Amino acid sequence: MMKKIIEFGIYLLIFLLPWQTRWIVEAGKINCGTSEYLTYSLYGVDILLVGLLVLALIYFFLGTFLGTKSPIGNLVPKKTSIYPFMEVKLLLIFLGLGGLSIFWAENKTLALFREGQLILVLGFFWLVANFAKISKLALSFVASLIVPTLLGLWQFFAQTTFADKWLGLATHKTSLGGTSVIETFSNGIVDGRWLRAYGSFDHPNIFGGVVAIGSLVTLILLCHFSLNGKFLGTKSPLGNLVPKNKFIFQGQAYFLCLFLHFCLAIFSAGLFASLSRSAWLALMLGVIFIGARLLFQKKFEDLKSLVSGGIIISAVFLVMFLGYRNLVNVRVEGGTRLENLSLDQREVYLQQAKILITKNPTMGVAIGNYISSLAKLKPTDQAWTYQPVHNVLLLIWAELGIFGLMAFVGFLASLSWKLGRKNELSGALLIALLPMLLLDHWLWSFHFGLLFFALVIALATGFSGEKKVI
Fold first, then answer.
1. Which of 195, 302, 319, 344 has a CA that sits 20 to 30 A from residue 226's CA?
2. How many helices (H) and strands (E) does the chain have?
3. Can you give the pTM of this predicted structure?
4. In the predicted model, what is the mean pLDDT of residues 299-307?
């Protein structure tokens, strides 16, 4: 019973993950302005996560005390494992470097808080690895994005937002600076500011990136599911979604299939509404990788499902493009005032990162202290000008030094090599992360980004069949 409570608690946690409900313990301040990157917050999902971790530890100790074979008794299973030994060592090194950096941090409290977040994220991954079934985990993730995506579509079409503290939603007005908008033109003159979809997230790029991964996961489920309610292939790690020895009504199979196609359609529309180029690129890379691998391996049945899903995505994008061609042209062609301003700002952030890395190439400025170090470097700027570099690798290098960067890159490279060679679905998810890692910072600088990164790694490992289903 306790194991079941923990398992379904994980699915609930995944379902609630897109909602940024939090208690702001202390708002970060720089020069009388607020900074999200210096803010201490307690998120609602953190409370649930800590509760599940406590239950899991009790379950572990009860299993040990009673002499039963607890499924989490082997923290690092010897054979079939979600924890390849090399990756474990690299993660521990990475976590250890973060802990050591607290000693030379400019803001030690912030560094300690950030290290605590990393430990909590590692606990989240450990929970998912030991208690969640990959099929239910994937479906929970897909289901969790339906309401945020519909909210994002409403924001895009209605061109308005609303604030709600219980849902963690903020107001984004097109007339205010700092809101992500696309400037529209008429006869060469700016005639409007079009709001990009935020969904339930802090930025359209986050919304787009999450929905892109959600679209890939939906495609993965479709590639393994046929209308008779059976999974294609005898060794599918998703085989437990529809039990082999139990009768399933044809209507249930059709319902699940229609549900996945519905999700793919609204995710495609939401992805368009985010107008996030990195998210578009992420989905494109993932689909191309799956298609190329399936074609090379001659898995034509799975390829048919992929093509079917690709047609849905293309059709939705085409319809949206016909209605909002001017917005796409601005994002693709660039050259407008706001697009040039965005590129100029990214260049400034890149130069700032180079300065911090040059000053501290080996040790870094300490975990979580990137913005504090920028404020010390340029003490008179306004709070909103202090932003992380839009590249996770450079951001990690600046905070944890060259050894932290090597540990992180080594972890990703080793995992991608092992999983990508074995399974096209796992490789697609990991490849889809690349644009978000190289063109943005939210996977490292935001609380949600850390948890989402761990979730994607868990999904990729589960799809590969490396994780035992318990």
1. 319
2. 17, 4
3. 0.90
4. 79
Q: How far apart are CA 291 and CA 307, in angstroms?
A: 8
Largest interatomic CA distance in the chain: 77
Contact 223, 293 (CB under 8 A): no
Please give the helix or strand (H or E) that residue 301 lies within, else none: helix 300-323
Burial class (CB in 10 A: 0-12, 13-18, 19+), 290: buried
3-class state of residue 260 by DSSP: helix
| H or E segment to which residue 5 belongs | helix 2-16
Work out whether the CA dihedral 413, 418, 421, 424 comes out positive or negative. negative
Indicate if the pLDDT at residue 235 is higher than 90: no
Token pair recorded at residue 413:
């490279």
CB atoms closer than 10 angstroms to residue 5: 13
Question: If DSSP codes are grouped into helix, strand and coil, which group holds residue 27?
Answer: strand
| Tokens representing residue 151 in the block | 């909210």
Residue 391's CB: how many other CB atoms inside 10 A?
A: 20
**Predicted pLDDT of residue 246:** 42
CA angle 418, 427, 243 (to 5 degrees): 95
Query: In what helix (H) or strand (E) does residue 29 lie, and over which residues does it extend?
Result: strand 22-30
Are 26 and 40 contacting, i.e. CB atoms less than 8 angstroms apart? yes
Q: In the structure encoding, which two tokens stand for residue 277, read together?
A: 């180029």
Structure tokens at 299: 């898995």
Two structure tokens written together for 175: 């007339």
Token pair 């939603």 in the structure block, residue: 169
Q: What amino acid occupies position 271? A: L
442-457: pLDDT as tens digits? 999 999 999 999 999 9
Beta-bridged to residue 319, according to DSSP, are: none
Torsions phi, psi of 446, nearest 5?
Answer: -110, 145
